[in-house]
Design goal:
This protein is an alpha+beta fold. Helix content is about 20%, strand content about 40%. Strands 5, 6, 7, 8 and 9 form a 5-stranded mixed sheet that branches. It has a 4-stranded mixed sheet with strand order 1-4-3-2. The longest helix is centred in the first third of the chain and has 11 residues, at about 15-25. It starts with 5 loop residues before the first strand and ends with a strand.
Length: about 130
Amino acid sequence: MSRIALVTLVVRDYDEALAFYRDALGFDLVEDTDRGDGSRWVVVRPRGAADGTGLLLARAKDAAQGAAVGAQTGGRVGFFLHTEDFAADHAQMRAAGVRFLEEPRHEAYGSVAVFEDLYGNRWDLLQPAV
């Protein structure tokens, strides 16, 4: 085993999730395949991360999965988006309407700010210290 290829993120709707990750966060659409049963295989990945871990955007199929939308990590930061230009990416994301929960912080490990995706999942935008 050499890497984690995909992480599933349960979403309400494929198209609204895709619009957020593609348009607000600037992710690349890797795949969007109709599975023939009303579901799709939708994979996004941070721009330029051709071999990095992708997100499988999976539409909730029932009430139990629907209840998990936005709460998959129990309110904790569950996703970590690394950047090489924190200031530029932070500004672009704010301009695109991404909701940050705090002002940027500069810690020993790098520059960081917590934001929420469209469902309330918490993410760190992080530029690791060199």
